[in-house]
Amino acid sequence: MQVRELAVAGAFTFTPDVHTDERGLFVAPFQEPAFLQAVGERFSVAQINYSRSARGVIRGLHFTRTPPGQSKYVYCAAGRALDVMVDVRVGSPTFGKWDAVELDAESFGGVYFPLGVAHSFAVLEDDTVLAYMVSSSYVPDQELAIDPLDPELGLPWPQSDPILSPRDRAAASFAEITAQGLLPRYEDCVRQEEA
After folding, report:
1. Quick one: CA torsion of 39, 41, 47, 49, rounded to 10 degrees?
2. Is 19 among the catalytic positions?
3. Cis check: omega of the bond before 67, within 30 degrees of 0
4. Coil, strand, or helix at residue 79?
5. Which DSSP helix (H) or strand (E) runs through 195?
6. Enclosing domain of residue 186
7. Is-contact 101 109, C-beta < 8 A?
8. Separation between Cα atoms, residue 191 and residue 193, nearest integer Å
9. How many domains does the chain have?
10. From 19, 62, 138, 186, active-site residue
11. How far apart are CA 103 and CA 116, in angstroms?
12. Distance from C-alpha of 148 to C-alpha of 47, rounded to nearest angstrom
């Protein structure tokens, strides 16, 4: 398993070995020993999510109020996607910074997002499947959205006219959601992760 730290504090990408033979392939997209060595704590899975999307879709930019917060481990089980994270933790050393990782079903690379990091992805092939292990159950009132097309963020979307959900199309800009005081505080995220 290859591990690489990303530009957002506490975020990592993990690339497992893929074993192939005449039968097909075997891969372990999440491996606790490598995760533990990189992140320094176990990943507690409360729910597993699965999405299948058409080419040109952008899902997100979503994050969960902290507390309780939600960390994610995401990998691509079919197709290809550009996975994007933005550090929205007020007081974080990388506040407002983003990073992007291409995920595909050839390498089965995964990305870990700590509490307080917003997540989005652009689908690059039809029938792309992303699987997410998340640390808390989905609670609609706790999840917030930021406009993924906000020019202030300058995210590296590959398409100029993506397919968005009505919720994502109507989401507030990064500046608006910051001014509303809805962003998590870095110290609360760290404290919650250590609990």
Report:
1. 10
2. no
3. yes
4. coil
5. none
6. 2-194
7. yes
8. 6
9. 1
10. 62
11. 21
12. 24
Q: Of 17, 109, 110, which is closest to residue 71 (Cα–Cα)? A: 110
C-alpha to C-alpha distance for 123 and 60, rounded to whole angstroms: 12
Active-site annotation holder among 73, 75, 132, 186: 132
Residue 160 structure tokens: 């100029």
User: How confident is the model over 108-162, as pLDDT tens digits?
Assistant: 999 999 999 999 999 999 999 999 999 999 999 999 999 999 999 999 999 889 9
**Catalytic (active site) residue 62:** yes
Residue 44, domain CATH: 2.60.120.10
- pTM for the structure as a whole: 0.94
Exposed, middle or buried: residue 24 (CB in 10 Å: 0-12, 13-18, 19+)? exposed
pLDDT at 181: 96
Burial 37-68 (b: 16+ CB within 10 A, else e): ebbeeebeeeeeeeeebebebbbbbbbbbbee
Tokens representing residue 80 in the block = 């290809």
Please tell me the distance from the alpha carbon of residue 130 to that of residue 175, in angstroms, as a whole number. Answer: 29
For residue 185, give the amino acid letter: R
